[in-house]
């Protein structure tokens, strides 16, 4: 029987667009069919936690907020969710038992802000927005980001792990021998992209990053162009999954750039996933990564390396989960 690895090798024989037939048979829903509502507003966000975040974003838009307000307020719901182990201060810690957060925010005109490796701040997405609006910089990290938060009146939270995160960490310590892990399961960022009734785009992305990462590790989420990119003329995209693989291909920027060159959001996401697989060939069995993208027309798409990635879509017709297309048919 041909394994996923064999299929992968076959895939590398062709160019990124020329996939041998045998390889095609191994795929499910790839290239993805794409979606189109041609309707505004439209809000998309990654994973199941996107439903509650979308609902809040929609409410903000409905009460006269801007699309930037909507994508900020939307993901704050996830940051605030005590049951969430991959976003916010209740998330899983790094291998030293410390929760460090990454976030970014971007407007269609190119304005953007981000924070990385930040501790004790409940809403890193709001801090990222403050970096964008109240400093001459785009990115602040670590202690400096925390100092800036305090100077902006943001409270420092207790640095206590959520009890469930603490239990899981203690269990991990017993078995893992303090080795940082990267695998297809230990992450779930929220990335949100939105289009308002006038066609304005914005996006946000926030995460506690990979569980049990090395202390100091920064993922793709706060890196403009990797975890998030928005360009009013071309579209918006955001990413989730193994950040190292996404950074290597500037994944979100690549999706937006492909849309600028005329690809549909779905075609752009499909190509980004192909590119990611090609660039990460040695480790692909351990990688999950997913992308969502939209343009100003209300077309959108999603693609992932392997099954399991879904996203929440809010239109005037409702708020529901949608499965992404995926390159490999197995998890
Ligand atoms: N992209 C995030 C990171 O690498 C992980 C995730 O999607 O949860 O930090």
Explain the overall architecture:
It is a single chain. With 331 residues, this protein is of the alpha+beta class. The chain has one domain: Glutamine Phosphoribosylpyrophosphate, subunit 1, domain 1, CATH 3.60.20.30. Helices cover 32% and strands 22% of the residues. The protein has ten helices and 14 strands. The protein has helices at 4-13, 21-25, 50-62, 67-79, 124-134, 142-151, 163-176, 243-247, 251-260, 265-279, and strands at 35-36, 42-46, 101-107, 112-118, 139-141, 190-195, 201-207, 228-231, 235-241, 289-294, 299-304, 310-315, 318-323, 325-326. The strands form two sheets. Strands 5-4-3-7-6-2-12-13 form an eight-stranded mixed β-sheet. Strands 1, 8, 9, 10, 11 and 14 form a six-stranded mixed β-sheet that branches. A hairpin with a 4-residue loop joins strand 10 (289-294) and strand 11 (299-304). Bound molecules: aspartic acid (ASP).
